[in-house]
Amino acid sequence: MSKNAAGARTGSEQALTLYQELRDAPGEGFDDAARRLNLTAAEREQCRAELAALGLIEPPAAGTAPVVVPPDTALLRLLQHERERLEHRLAETSRAHTTLETLAGPFLRSGTEPGSEVEVEIVEDPARIRRELAELTETVRASVHSMLTGSVRRDEMCLELDRDRERTARGVRVQAMYSHRVGQVPEMAQHLAERTALGVEVRLSAVVPMNMVLADENFALLPTDPHDPESAAILARGPGLVRSYRALYDYCWHAATPYGREEPGEHGGDGLSEQQRAALRMLASGIKDEQVARNLGVSLRTVSRLISELMQELDAASRFEAGVRAARLGLLDGEPYEPPA
User: Fold this and answer.
1) Which of 116, 219, 244, 254 has its CA 20 to 30 A from that of 237?
2) Contact 246, 145 (CB under 8 A)
3) Who wins on pLDDT, 199 or 67?
4) Residue 329 has pLDDT above 60, yes or no
């Protein structure tokens, strides 16, 4: 058992010892077990707060002993809580998407105010989609914002650079966002460097939610199914709708890393990379490895490697132990638990 500089047990070790005492003596009062371990009043309350925060004890009824919760039950409850939070967020996103579809349908009346006209069209022909993108080069006036979940096709790289050259020469602001894994492909890394040299703002993110192209806050092109880049496209025109997509893009953009400024594997203050943190939260929410791989745009082998790195970083011998340690460190909700002074 490790000790602090003075040779005394740390608060977490005291909490663990007290928890084991409570499990070994069912029905014993919390204060009685604490006194048997010679804990001070402050140490006792610190242990009580830590065990309660981890879900390892439940507040007792009047005059009864605390309910001791097995570690696996506490972890399952935590994972269920995280899953419910994720489902709640997904439900909110679904409601927002339904609202957008309604606004883009019969309830959207054009002409209610200047610039309120909106046109929405489902485009299934890939050639038509490419033509719409090509026309942007000639018609865009102020800005183009794009995000791409995968790599650019080799035969389209030169064409994209020609478009960048023409747009930036006219003073058009061009922003492009890709996943970190795309930036690790040598051919794509060279392409992104060439785009950056032409004045394109390029950023990398651990997760890119979908393919999207926005122009002048008046044009949007995105897939009907974000999980299937080959699906039909939604072609929207009109600032009333495109501004909503721009808000989503800006959120992702500010969370991404400028290309060339910082390595994607660089670790934050908690010792985890952005990609590792994203994988950890998805796994804690009950998402299977296959879906994690799709969301991150990586292979199952890479997900297995990420999990192995997480277990090593958290000094855990199993996924279960990694989940407990991640919860204690606040890696699942953004704020680490700090016992009261």
Assistant:
1) 254
2) yes
3) 199
4) yes
Report the range out of 59-63, 139-143, 315-319 with the highest average pLDDT. Answer: 139-143
Q: Are 252 and 226 in contact (CB under 8 A)?
A: no
Q: In the block, which residue shows the tokens 């025109």?
A: 237
Give dist(CA 136, CA 160) in Å, integer.
Answer: 12
Q: Which domains does the chain possess?
A: 11-69 (1.10.10.10), 114-258 (3.30.870.10), 274-328 (1.10.10.10)
Residue 271 identity: G
Contact (Cβ atoms closer than 8 angstroms) between residue 12 and residue 6: no
Residue 61 CB neighbour total at 10 angstroms: 9
Q: Which long-range CB contacts under 8 A does 17-23 form with residues at least 24 apart?
A: 18/47, 18/51, 19/51, 19/56, 19/57, 19/68, 22/57, 22/65, 22/66, 22/68, 23/68
On the question of pLDDT at 205 being above 60, the answer is yes
Give the count of beta carbons closer than 10 Å to the beta carbon of residue 136.
Answer: 19
How far apart are the C-alpha atoms of 214 and 247, rounded to whole Å?
11
Please list, in sequence order, all residues whose beta carbon lies within 8 angstroms of the beta carbon of residue 324, skipping any fewer than 6 positions away. Answer: 54, 71, 74, 75, 316
User: For residues 161 and 168, what is the distance between their CA atoms, to the nearest angstrom?
Assistant: 10
Q: How many residues does the chain have?
A: 341
List, as one string, the DSSP characters of 284-309. HTT--HHHHHHHHT--HHHHHHHHHH
Q: CB of 242 within 8 A of CB of 220?
A: yes
Q: Record the tokens describing residue 41, joined without a space.
A: 């009043």
List, in sequence order, every residue forming a beta bridge with 145; answer none if it has no partner. Answer: 175, 214
For the CA atoms of 251, 255, 260, 261, the dihedral, rounded to the nearest 10 degrees, stands at 120
pLDDT digits (tens, 9 = 90+) for 30-48: 888 888 889 998 998 898 8
Instruction: Retrieve residue 226's tokens.
Output: 């974000």
**pLDDT at position 87:** 85
- Give the C-alpha separation, 310 to 307, whole Å: 5
**268-287 pLDDT per residue, tens:** 445 677 777 777 777 777 77
DSSP state of 267: B
Helix (H, G, I), strand (E, B) or coil at 149: coil
pLDDT computed for residue 3 by the predictor: 44
